[in-house]
Amino acid sequence: MDHQKAYEGLAPTVRAAYLERIGVTEPGPPSAEGLALLQLAHLRAVPFENLSIHLGEPVVLEPAALVAKLVDRRRGGFCYELNGAFAELLRTLGYRVSLLAARVFDGERSGPPFDHLALRVDLDEPWLVDVGFGRFSLLPLRLDERGAQSDPHGTVVIGPYGDHGELDVRLDGVPQYRLDPRPYRLADFGPTCWWQTTSPQSHFTRSTTCSLPAPDGGRTTLSGTRLIRTAPDGGRTEEQLTDAGALSAYREHFGIVLDRLPTRPSA
């Protein structure tokens, strides 16, 4: 990819701050083990959230802005933001990274192109890396493997679809998304990102979510003022919080400090 040849990387201070944000001191040279360490650390530290939409903040698909949001503002984001920023960190650490577009499944039906952004990382073999899909694989996946791959979150199968090299990704038999194998630029995701953040038909504009994996293998999610704890076996509990309690939950569970609750912006 020609645009990667001129890539200058994050400044050393920004790189160090990003690694501190995810709790990694020194990942070492590019390797499968280092990649797994980085992905797992990122997933556990940086929440999947759509709060900017409901706080009236613009989602800016520029590398510096994405990294600053996660590192300086100690926030999270959704797929374009999380995987876009993570790609910058990985490239700075010497990894070869491509941005892949995907269609997210709703049942057995796939969504529109560029519905999701995932990463391809090339080492001795290509890997699928994703820190922006909520509850999904905790570890990188072998992109060329067509058999079952075990992950702490379940069994993943990546299989071919159609005649154009597309790949369907399934978790425990449930289709997650359909990958386009071609590399794209971050700007290519701009139109769909704009739709996701503005359209009344987008599920991101309908409600707020903020979510992280829990240390016990479950998940902690704040949806509006409902605090949802999901157990590893699928059991869940819900607690309805006050507005003040929700603001405290953002700080306690996700490290996000807000001066007001996110609400849907006025049209």
Question: Mind explaining what this structure looks like?
Answer:
It is a single chain. The chain is globular. The strands form two sheets. Strands 2, 3, 4, 5, 6, 7, 8, 9 and 10 form a nine-stranded antiparallel beta sheet that branches. Residues 1-5 have low confidence and may be disordered. Strand 11 and strand 12 (219-223) form a beta hairpin. It has nine helices and 14 strands. It is an alpha+beta fold. The N and C termini lie far apart (40 Å). Helices cover 30% and strands 28% of the residues.
Distance between the termini: 40 Å
- Structural classification: alpha+beta
What would you call the shape? globular
Strand content: 25-35%
Helix content: 25-40%
List low-pLDDT spans. 1-5
Q: Secondary-structure element order, as H and E?
A: HHHEHHHEEEEEEEEEHHEEEEH
Put simply, the count of helices is 9
- Rounded mean pLDDT score: 93
Overall strand count:
14
The biggest sheet, with number of strands, parallel, antiparallel or mixed sense and barrel status, is: 9 strands, antiparallel
C-alpha-based Rg, rounded: 18 Å
Which characteristics define this entry?
28% strand; globular; alpha+beta; 267 residues; nine-stranded antiparallel sheet; 9 helices; 30% helix; disordered N terminus
What is the structure about, briefly put?
By secondary structure, this protein is of the alpha+beta class. The chain has helices at 2-5, 12-21, 32-45, 51-55, 63-71, 79-92, 190-198, 203-206, 243-254, and strands spanning 48-49, 96-106, 109-110, 116-122, 126-129, 141-142, 148-151, 154-161, 166-171, 174-184, 210-213, 219-223, 226-230, 236-240. It is globular and about 50 Å long.
